[in-house]
């Protein structure tokens, strides 16, 4: 197993985890928006909705930064940009199967 293979395997796993975490962060943000809208005049629920919105936005920002970091590392190592699709392997001259496969 070469260093390129190991790095490529790590990139594939990180891409899949990043996609999953984007979904989770988006759901947290949307849940916060829903809580904020239905809170009415209850300050406790409004505060809780704001907290979820903040957490969701922070999570989306972190995931976007992580995704950019993965792209930068991949481009530095392989000289090309990886595929944007989360469940495909874009490793050059290797036929790697992703750990998580869509059902």
Task: Compose a concise summary of this entry.
Helices cover 70% and strands 0% of the residues.
Overall pLDDT, averaged? 79
DSSP strand (E) fraction? under 5%
Shape: rod-shaped
Helical content, roughly?
A: 55-70%
Q: Which blocks of ≥5 consecutive residues have pLDDT under 50?
A: none
Tell me the series of helices and strands, N- to C-terminal.
Answer: HH
* Cα-based radius of gyration, to the nearest Å: 18 Å
Largest sheet: none
How far do the termini sit from each other? 29 Å
Number of helices: 2
Number of strands: 0
Quickly give the structural class. mainly alpha
Topology of helices and strands:
Layout: H1 3-38, H2 43-78
Helix pairs in contact: 1-2
What key attributes describe this structure?
single chain, 103 residues, mainly alpha, 70% helix, 0% strand
Fold and architecture overview:
With 103 residues, this protein is mainly alpha-helical. It is 70% helix and 0% strand. Helix 1 packs antiparallel against helix 2. The longest helix is centred in the first third of the chain and has 36 residues, at 3-38.
């Amino acid at each position: 197993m070469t260093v390129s293979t190991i790095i490529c395997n790590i990139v594939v796993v990180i891409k899949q985890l990043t996609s999953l975490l984007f979904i989770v962060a988006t759901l947290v943000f949307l849940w916060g928006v829903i809580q904020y809208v239905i809170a009415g005049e209850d300050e406790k629920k409004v505060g809780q909705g704001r907290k979820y919105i903040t957490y969701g936005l922070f999570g989306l920002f972190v995931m976007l930064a992580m995704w950019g970091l993965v792209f930068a590392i991949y481009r530095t190592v392989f000289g090309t940009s990886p595929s944007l699709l989360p469940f495909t392997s874009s490793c050059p001259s290797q036929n790697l199967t992703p750990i998580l496969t869509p059902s």
